[in-house]
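Listing S7. Sequence submitted for prediction.
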Amino acid sequence: MAQAPRRILVVEDEFLVALDLQEQLSRLGYVCVGPVTTIADAMAIATTRDSIDAAILNVVVNGERVDALCDVLEARGIRFGFASGVGPSELAGWPGHPCIQKPYSVDDVERLVERLLRRGFAQ
């Protein structure tokens, strides 16, 4: 029996970037949950759904940092990484979580998701 496609939560407030990331994930064989454009919507999904395998987050969504969402994802054991235009200093609170810098390629997205889904991922 084939394994169901892995479900990746995408939190991104820039419409075209979110659409592109959704398309890239689909081409790679993943199911994109979202994309969601607010922290509140992302929190609702992260706290109520059991079928999220990983999350890709922009660091700042509509002017709000994703730190509270990261806390929820970490507490639930949902692996996450970042796809953002911020520098490493902005990620200081989340060492060990992978980040790809905008603009990113399909290969960057594929490596990020593979790292998130790999067993033994160190958080």
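Caption to Listing S7: primary sequence and predicted structure tokens for the chain studied. The helical segments are 15-27, 39-48, 67-75, 106-117. Strands lie at 7-11, 31-36, 54-57, 60-61, 64-65, 79-84, 99-101.
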